[in-house]
Design a protein that fits this description.
This protein is α+β, with helices and mostly antiparallel strands. Helices cover 44% and strands 14% of the residues.
Length: 324
Amino acid sequence: MEKMNYPSFGRNIESKNSRRSRTYLGIIVFLILITIVVVNKAGQVNLVSPMAESNSSPNENKSEAPPTNIEVTRNLDLEGLEKEIAREVAKTQGTFSVYFYDLESGRNFGINEQMQVMAASVNKIPILAALYYKVAKNELDLDRIIVPQAKDIRDYGTGSIQYDPPGTPYSLKTLARLMMEKSDNTAAYILASLVIGLDDIQSLVESWGMTQTDMLSNKTSARDIGIVTIKMYRGEITNSALTREMIDFMDDSDFEDRIPKGVDSQVKVYHKTGDEVRTVHDAGIIDLPGKPYFLAVFATDVVDATITKEKIVLISRIIYENLK
């Protein structure tokens, strides 16, 4: 076979193309590496201080204006309200406890309201009440500084303290705020177990008439939570200045996806949610001007948490539309 002699310029063109290809490849690799670094850093920022309950993000949970497509029956009397809510509860999987109390008239109704259930984070309400009760008695100082030790950190569930640097100091007031606004489990543990004492909290809740609340096993009922929350709102736990501060920690939390979502956005809701496996709760005071009321909706044996939350929103909306 005849040997072909390629012109030298052909080899020069080939080498230039190769260099150009290698240059383009290098640029592409560089851009890919930059993208990976940026994405990785963004992920690290999200891990620093998550403040979401369970599997939800704070932004997803923040309350918006009530959905306009919710149609509810209006002009119901108290008996009609109870029947309407009972019908809605019956249509949803799970076991519901509902307790409504009108703070002006004292009218109330309940559905399984005295059924003892796992409280989840709702029992942070009596912890808050016990703290401010003792502050008013000069037994505790809200400015006292606590530096959590490694053994104090609850490295599960909600809260930001578990992600803060070791040795970070917190005042008791800051722990109270984080416990309610961020549902911080470490803050709740420190206040309940190390600062106040579970035995002291138990004695207080019993003195307040909460006969179905067990702080050690974390059990309560919708009616019991109503008792303590109403006392807090009415200023029966601590003095007026501390009452204002205490209940303000229960407004505009990171978890506004249930009762608050069923009322108009300008209405304050002082409440606490609770979430556990197959458990979805919310309870609080809806500060409707001239017509404040308490509402608790607890759901256990939950099959679908999203559907259950939507049902709590609906129950909240039914009551709100018939009271406003």
